[in-house]
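Morning F.,

Quick status update on the modeling queue. The single chain you submitted on Monday has been processed. Sequence for confirmation:
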Amino acid sequence: MAAAALLRPRAGSGGPGALWRTQRRQRSTFDVAVVGAGIVGLASARELVLRHPELAFAVLEKEKELAHHQSGHNSGVIHSGIYYTPGSLKAKLCVQGAALCYDYCDQKGIPYKQCGKLIVAVEQDEIPRLKALYERGLQNNVRGLKLIGSKEIQAKEPFCRGLMALDSPYTGIVNYKQVAESYAEDFQEAGGTILTDFEVTGMEMAKESSSESADGLKYPVIVRNSKGEEIYCRHIVTCAGLYSDRLSEISGCSPEPRIVPFRGDYLVLKPEKCYMVKGNIYPVPNPRFPFLGFHFTPRMDGSVWLGPNAVLAFKREGYKLFDFSTTDFFDAVLYSGLWKLVLRNLSYGLNEMYRACFLSAQVKELQKFIPEVTVNDVLRGPSGVRAQALDSDGNLVDDFVFDGGTGDIGSRILHVRNAPSPAATSSLAIAKMIADEVKRRFEL
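Structure tokens below.
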């Protein structure tokens, strides 16, 4: 199908239902298999099939639905690119990706709201950091940024208090699961195959006698799942998020950077209190700590999320407080890089754990911005798990990491080892970069 045809809105595309379809496997040989049907994997598969319509592509997903983990458990914010180091890939891809995201949603009829964001200074010592953020945003070519005073803050957010704020009017919100499912439908319409319930557990080179391809060893890589089923392909691209390090290991590539899961728990405002928040309200980030801090985030369904915190998760897909996996737990706590991170941020980590246990402590953080919020106005809400890449020195890996290997199979694999936040915002721009890298490495 021509690329232009994939840019037309679809009947019902604004609705909540999935538009992609479950496929029966009608073939077992592909030119490229993309492992992982999160938003980055689907965007990349879509970009690849549009660039190379003559090739056969598959997406392999271990769950029965798409965008089930990080892509379906996030704040839904379309970020503008303020925070990131000028000249970094994160900065460039976020600014490009936000523009592409808005254009794509317009073309497909996917609803979004450009509700803006205020980054609010509530203490005098935060104002120099806020001004530095403003300068950084300008260097990153973020549109429409301006510094505003307390009266202008209240004009935009009547219940918010602050000394000064950075106003980002082009920040928005969207349902990223719906965006990811639209990518999946584009991919399928262009001839791609999506295989769900296909948990990849092995990758190896085929022996001459084992290839099912009529073309002999045209498809020399075997990808095997947990049920013993196999597909054959020429090349593999992994976009596995929380399992990116493990997939790299089973393919014989480097185990680092390692993934350490951090759970983020949200509160939600009670429906009758949602009038207090119009757009995104964020704190001025403290450079001594690795995460952005508590913020107010309106959602497409009209609700308002508050948070998240950031605590070590004892299971990579552990969305509840007591979710536990022995393998995931020992993977994390036996990694020296985690302990180096913990020791450098001990007070921050203890405070996060305290706030995770006590609702009043979380509300106290929120009251710095909206004093009227009380414990009676909030409920415990959903959680997400962030795949935080960490090196052996305890440093958060803050930019994109591509990895491959040597030898027959290593040279046929591209691992997207780290696609950090704001990967959902940047997904279409990331996909272009991944497609370029695939072409360079595999000479498609």
